Amino acid sequence: MTEVLIDLVLLGMLAMTALRVIFLKDLFAVVMLFSIFSFVSALIFINLDAVDVAFTEAAVGAGISTVLMLGTIALTGRTEKKNSHSSILHLVVVCVTGAALIYGTMDMPPFGNADNPIHQHVAPRYIEDSPKEVGLPNIVTSVLASYRGFDTLGETVVVFAAMIGVLSLLGTARPTNKRATPESGLAKHRVLHVVAKIIIPFIILFALYVQFHGDYGPGGGFQAGVIAAAALILYALVFGASFAHRIVSPRQLEVFAPLGVLLYASVGLVGMIKGANFLDYNVLASTAAAGQHYGIIIIELGVGLTVFAAMLGLFYAFSNQVERSNVQ
Amino acid sequence: MSILDYFSAILLAGGVFFSFTGAIGLFRFPDFFTRVHAASVTDTIGVILIIAGLLLQTSFDLNIIKLLLILAILLLTSPTASHALAKSARHGGLLTLAESNRSNDR
Amino acid sequence: MTGVLTATCIAILVVMAMALARALKAPTVYDRILGVNMFGTKTVLFIAVVGYMTGRPDFLDIAIVYALISFIGMVAVLRFFEYTAPIE
Amino acid sequence: MSVIVDYYNYWIVVFLMMAGFYVVISANNLVKKVVGLNIFQTSVFMLYISMGKVSGGTAPIIIEGVTQYSNPLPHVLILTAIVVGVATTAVGLSLVIRIKHAYGTVEENEFQNEDDAI
After folding, report:
1. pLDDT in tens, A197-242
2. What is the pTM of this model?
3. Considering the domain A1-81 in this protein, what is its CATH number?
4. Cβ pair B80:A202 closer than 8 A
5. Where are chain A's structural domains?
6. Distance (Å, rounded) from C-alpha A308 to C-alpha A253?
7. Do C74 and B22 touch (CB under 8 A)?
8. Any idea what the CATH number is for the domain that residue D34 is in?
9. Among the partner residues B9, B24, B27, nearest to C4 by beta-carbon distance
10. ipTM greater than 0.95, yes or no?
11. CB proximity list for A223: less than 8 A, separation 6 or greater
12. Residues of D with CB below 8 A from A94's CB?
C-alpha cells in the first residue's frame, strides 16, 4: 500500500514538473526543472525495484544531460521567443495520440501481476539459472554482460559513435594557451575550490567501487564511467577546463574510447580462438564459472573506459565551444 | 521495539521536524535571502538527525560506512552550495527585501 | 519500527513536494536553484529511508550518487549562469 | 475501481509522454525541443520498468530468503538505453550549436524564414 502511495505522489510530482516545462519561456528554468524530472523518475525506478536503472538515471540523466544542456543554453541564449502560430492544432494532435495510447493500455495486462506474459518468457530462466551459470548475485549484470553481451557491445559502439559525431560537429577541444589560468573557472568562489578539492578524490574512489562492485550490488561499467567523468567535469567546472586538460587531455580520450570497445570485442575474439562462440566466456578459464567472472570483469572495464572517455569528451567539446564564444 | 529503536525513532522524528520547518520557511518566507537561510540551516541538522537515526538501525556492516559517507558528503556539499548560491545571487545584484523597500521609498 | 520509517518516508515526501513547489513557483531563478538544491538533499535522505523501509539497505550507493551528482549540477548551474544575461 | 489500480501507472506515463510530445511539436526553440524529447524518452523508460514490476517482488539482486524478484530484462534494456540516450542528446545539442553558428538563431521559424530568403 505504501509503495502505491509513494508511486502516486512521485508520479504526481513528475506530471506537475512536465506541465510547468510546457509553459515556461526561460530555458534556464526549463533545464532546472528537467533535472528535477530526472531525479524524480530515478526515485520511481527505485520504487519499482529497478535499482540499476535508477543508478544510471541519477548519474546520467540528472548529471551529464543537465550539464550539456546548460552549456548549450550558454551558447544559444536563455529565452524562448513568443510562439506565433496557434497551438490548438498541436493540442488536438497530442490529445488524439494520447487517447489512442490510453485505449491501447486497456489491452495490457494489469500492473504488477506476477502472471503477466512478460514474466513467463525468459525472465524465470534468468532469475533461477543465472546464479548457477554465471555465479553473480546481481542478475542485471549477468544478463547485461553475459547473456546479452552482444547487445551491450552494440550499445558501447553507439556511445563511441556518438562521441565521434559530436567531435566532428564541434571540433576537438584544442589547448587554447599553454598557461592555464584559473580565471576561466569559478574564480570568485573560494569555498567551492576548497570543497571541490576535498570531494573529487572521493568521487573517483567511488567510481572505482561502482566499477568493481557492480557484480554484487547495483552498478557496473556504464555507471562507473559516468561517475568518473563527473569527477573530472566537476574539476573542470570549478578550476577551468585547461586544468582538467592537464590531467586527462582530449587526445588521451580519443585513445581511451576506441580502446574500451576493442577490449570488449577482443574478449569475444579470444573466446572464438578457444573454439567457442563470440563472447562466450565459459572457455576463458579452466572452469565455466571462473571464465564468466574473468569475461565480465574485462568487458565491464571496456565499457567503463569507453563511457568515461565519451562522456568527458562530450563535455570537453561543449565547454570548449562555450569558452571560445566567451573570448570573442 | 528495543531501546535502540526508540532512540532511532526520536532522532528520525527530530530530523523530520527540522526538515519540515525548513520547508515551511522555504515556502513562506518573503525574499530569497531569508529562504536560503531557512533551507540551508535546517537542511544540515535534518540530515544529521535522520542519518543518525538510520545508523542506529544498522547492523555492523558496510552500510555504516556508506551512511557515514553520505553524511560527510551532504555536510560538505549542502552548505557549500547554499553559500555559493547566495554569493552569486548577491553578485548578480539581487537585493534583500529591506533594501528593495528602501530603494522603492526613495 | 517499519511504521516509524514509513511515517518518516511520507514526511520527507511532503518536504520534497514543498521544495518542488518553490522550484515551480520561483519569483527569481535563484529561488528555483535553491528549491532544486533542497529537493536534492531530501531525495538522498528519502532513498536511504526507503532502503531501510523495504529491508534492503544495500542500495545506499544510489543515495551517494545522488548527493554527488546534485552537487555537480549545482556547480554547473553557477558556472554557466554567469554567461547568460538575467531576465528579471 | 480495480481498473484504476491496475492501470494508473500506465496512464500517468502516457500523460508524461504526451507532455513531452507537446513540447517537441509546439516549441519553437530547438533546445526546448531537445528537453521535450528527453521527457518523452524518460517516460518510455518508465513504461518499460512498470511492465517489469512484480508486486511483492524485490530488486533483482539475489539475497537469501527471497524468491520473488522483479523482472530483470527491462532493467537491462533500459539501463543501456539511458546511456545511449544521453549520447544521442549530446549529438542533438551539438547540432543545435552548429545551427546557432550558421543562422545566428535557434528559433525554428526564424531560420526557416532565412532558408526561404535564400
Report:
1. 999 999 999 999 999 888 888 888 899 999 999 999 999 988 888 8
2. 0.91
3. 1.20.120.1200
4. no
5. 1-81, 138-328
6. 9
7. no
8. 1.10.287.3510
9. B9
10. no
11. A52, A55, A56, A59, A210, A214, C65
12. 18, 21-22, 25
